[in-house]
Amino acid sequence: MVTRIDRRMAKLKTEGRPALVTYFMGGDPDYDTSLSIMKALPGAGADIIELGMPFSDPMADGPAIQAAGLRALKGGQTLVKTLKMAAEFRTGDNETPIVLMGYYNPIYIYGVDRFLTDAIASGIDGLIVVDLPPEMDEELCIPALKAGINFIRLATPTTDDKRLPKVLQNTSGFVYYVSMTGITGSALADTGKVAAAVKRIKGHTGLPVCVGFGVKTAEQARVIGANADGVVVGTAIVNAVANVLGPKGEKTADPAEAVATLVSGLAQGVRSARLAAAE
Amino acid sequence: MNKPAIPNSFRTGPDEKGMFGIFGGRFVAETLMPLILDLERHWNEVKNDADFRAELTDLSTHYAGRPSKLYFAEGLTRHLGGAKVYFKREDLNHTGSHKINNCLGQILLAKRMGKKRIIAETGAGQHGVASATVAARFGFPCVVYMGATDVARQSPNVFRMKLLGAEVRPVTAGHGTLKDAMNEALRDWVTNVEDTYYLIGTAAGPHPYPELVRDFQSVIGIEARAQILEQEGRLPDTIIAAVGGGSNAIGLFHPFLDDKEVRIIGIEAGGRGLDGIEHCASMNAGAPGVLHGNRTYLLQNADGQIMDGHSISAGLDYPGVGPEHSWLRDSGRVEYVPILDDEALEAFKLTTRVEGIIPALESAHAIAHAVKIVPAMNKDQIVIVNLSGRGDKDVHTVASMLGMEI
User: Fold this and answer.
1) Distance from CA of A277 to the nearest CA of B (A)
2) Which of B112, B148, B268, B367 lies 20 to 30 A from A155 at CA?
3) What ipTM was estimated for this complex?
C-alpha cells in the first residue's frame, strides 16, 4: 500500500532535496490556535507534519515539549480532539502527510482497533509511538501495518548493527534517526557522527532516513539535510509557540505566524542542503 | 476484564517476554531497549550464580543485619483480642526499611556490569537512602531524583542522603511526587546510557526490573515462612503488606503464593477516600494502562492521562503498582483493599503506644488492616504483618496531621 508519506518522499527524491519534517504539539495552547498552526505549516515549507499527542508523563521529552503537552492538556486537548484536528486539516489539504507522535497509553485506553479506524478516517498516514519498541510490536505496530498506516520507528545511537534489523523489520514510511542519546530539545550531536550513522542505517534499509533531536536552525537543517532524507524539527517549533505566550498563557503575538516564520527559514535550510553537498 | 485461568503455580512468572498475563512487558524508548536487554542478560547470569548469591548473603548478614526478626506483637495482640499478630521486622534492617535488600542486590549487579554511576528515584526517601548507602559503600557517585513535595515532607531522609554523599535533585513537574521522580530518572538514564545504572526501588518498570526486585525482596517471605514454621509449627492464616509500587509486599507474598491455605492481603493507600481522586488505590479504582515501562493498573482519566494520586504516606503516593500485583489481583490469588489516611494514622499511634514501635506510615497502612480483621479471628489463628520500615522519617508529617509543631 502506498501512503502519502511514500508519495511525498518519492517526489522529494526526484527534486533532489531532503524533507522538512515539522513537529508541533496538538492543542497547544488551545485547539483553535493549534489548528491554525497546523494549517500554516505546508505553506511555510513543511513537507511532513508530525502532530504531537499530549501525554501527562512524556518520559523521553525535554522541558519544552513537556511544557507544551501540559499546556495542551490544560487547554482541554484529548486524543479525540487531536484526531478531529487532523480531520479538519484534511478538508483543506489532502497531500501533506500527517504522522501522529506520542506515547502508547492514550491509544491503549482509546482502544487500538477503534483508534486505527478513526485515525484512517481522520487522514492519518503514520504513527510514532515512543514507548513501543519492536519487542512490543503485537500491541500496535502489526495492527497498524495491517490497517495501512505506516509505523515509523526510532533508531538511536544505542541501536547497534546487531539490533538494527529488528528495529527496521516492521518499520515503514521512513526511519527516524534520533541523533543522540537523550531527551528532545538537547544540543545537536556531532554532525559528522550523524552522517556516519545515517549511512550505517542506509546499509540496512531502502527506507528514507530522517534525522531529529537537536535541530533548531536553518544552518543545522542544511548540514544535517546534506546526508539525510529528511530533517525533523520539534522543540524549536514548540518554543516558537511558547515565546509568544505571556506568563498567564495569553497570546502576545500570533503563534501560527511565529511558527510559519521559523519554518520558512528552516525550509530554506533544507532546500539548500543538496546544493551545498554538491559543492 | 476476563479473569485469567488459575495456574498450577503462581510463582512461575514472568514469561520470556517479561509478562505476567497481560501485565508487565517492556514499554520503553528504543534508546533504553539495548540497556534493558543487557541488564536482562546479566541478571540471568547472576541469579543462579553461587558466588553472586554468597556475596549478597554475606552483605545481607553482616551489613544489613539479616535475617530480620519475626516478632510476636503481644501488646497489639492483647489489645485487639483476636488472632496472634506477628510483625516481620524489616524496620530493623540497616537504613530502616526493606529497601536495603534490593539495593544490595542491584549494586552488586551494577558492579558486575562495570557501571560507573548510580541513579535512583525515591518517594518516601527510604529507597533513596538505601541507594545512597550502597553507593557510598561501593564507591559509586549517586544521583537521587525526588519529587519536590516529597523533599519537603521527608526532610530527614533528604539530609541522610546528602550526608551519604548522594546528590538529591528535586523534581517540580506534576505534583512533585514519586511518579515525577521516576520520569526524571528515566530521562537521566536515556541521556547517560553508557555508564549509568538505574537502581529502581520498586517491583515495577520494564522487564526485568519487576522480576529482579521481587527476587531480591523475596528474602522477606522466605525468612518469614521458615520463622513462623519454627515458632508456631505451622503456616500463618493471613499475611498483610502495604502496596505502593509493591516491593515489600511482593517480597513477603511471593514465597507464600502456592500455600493455598494462606490468605494474602495487599493494602493500597485509600487516602481521603476512593469516591474522589485523593487516593492511590490503582487496583481498586484504576484501570490497566501503560506507564514507566510496564502495563499495570493505573490511576488515569478517560483519555489515558495519568492522575496524580494522594496519600499521607509518600512511599505509597504512586498512581501505579508493580505488574505482578496487577496479575495477582486479576487472578484472584491476592486481595487488595484500601486503607484511609486516618486509619493509617490511628494504627501508627496505636502501634507506637502498645508495642513501643514507631512504624513507617506505609507499614501503618498494613497494621491498620490487621486492626480491622484480627478482632473477628480466633485466638489460635496467626496473622503476619510486614513492618516494612521504621517511622522516624514520618514524625514531622504525623505531627502536622495532629496539629503539633516539633
Assistant:
1) 29
2) B112
3) 0.95
